[in-house]
Amino acid sequence: MKVSVQREDFDAGAEMRALSRDPKVGAVASFVGVVREVSMTLEHYAGMTEREIGKIVEEAGSRWQVMDCTVIHRYGELEPTDQIVLVAVASAHRADAFAACEFIMDYLKTRAPFWKKEQAAEGARWVEARASDDRAADRWRQEKPDAA
Amino acid sequence: MKVRLLFFAGLREQLGSAGEEIELPAGVTTLAGIREHLRARGGNYEKVFSGKALVRMALNQEMAQPAAPVKPGDEVAFFPPVTGG
């Protein structure tokens, strides 16, 4: 398991290859979040961020078969087309890899202490939390997977 | 008792402070109590910590509820709902 909160960019391909070295791995599912349209600054709560992501990854491991997992989240100044976040999950089969990847991403959006400040034409503004993100995270409470 | 306060994002900007060490008056023993104590300072603190504002709290780097009790040396953070990912 790898959790990194960093300023620097990441190489998603290299991270995914690193997850498939174990011959028991049959599937690596990944998600990359990218800055859309406007420049932004990402602030975070150093220390708590890593702990929260660690807890989310642990929870994913208790729900699905997760053989290995990498979460990288950037902070600082980011420009349109820059990568923000990578979630990559390795499992024996795709269903677990897909589900765990989406779960980690949904929980990360509502629980990890990051805040985006967008640089819009009319000035800088803090992005407001969205109810749709809360709903995306909430649906995992009803959708518990079948016991493996 | 003394605790460490931290403010993030929009809260930090509105208050003009990233945090402080604070000696709490006797009787202030929970996160809700600290929030009320800060609100009573008036000005921007009143605005940020009034009942209407959405403020999340963490105690020693764990999300926490208003009723959570604090002890000397705790790290208490106030911030808006998160928007990462």
Keywords:
heterodimer; A: 148 residues; alpha+beta; Aldehyde Oxidoreductase, domain 3; four-stranded mixed beta sheet; four-stranded antiparallel beta sheet; 8 strands; B: 85 residues; Ubiquitin-like (UB roll); five-stranded mixed beta sheet; 3 helices; 5 strands; 27% helix
Walk me through the structure.
The complex is a heterodimer of chains A (about 150) and B (about 80). Chain A is an alpha+beta fold and about 150 residues long. Chain A has one domain (about 1-140): Aldehyde Oxidoreductase, domain 3 (Alpha-Beta Complex). Chain A has helices at about 10-20, 50-65, 95-110, 130-140, and strands at about 1-5, 25-35, 40-45, 70-75, 75-80, 85-90, 115-120, 125. In chain A, the strands form two sheets. Chain A has a four-stranded mixed beta sheet, with helices on both faces. Chain A has a four-stranded antiparallel beta sheet with strand order 5-3-7-8, with no helix packed on it. In chain A, α2 runs antiparallel to α3 (about 95-110) and α3 (about 95-110) packs across α4 (about 130-140). Chain A is globular. With about 80 residues, chain B is an alpha+beta fold. Chain B has a domain at about 35-85: Ubiquitin-like (UB roll). Chain B has three helices and five strands. In chain B, strands 2-1-5-3-4 form a five-stranded mixed beta sheet. The termini of chain B are far apart. The mean pLDDT of chain B is about 95. The interface of A and B includes residues 110, 112, 129 and 133 of A.
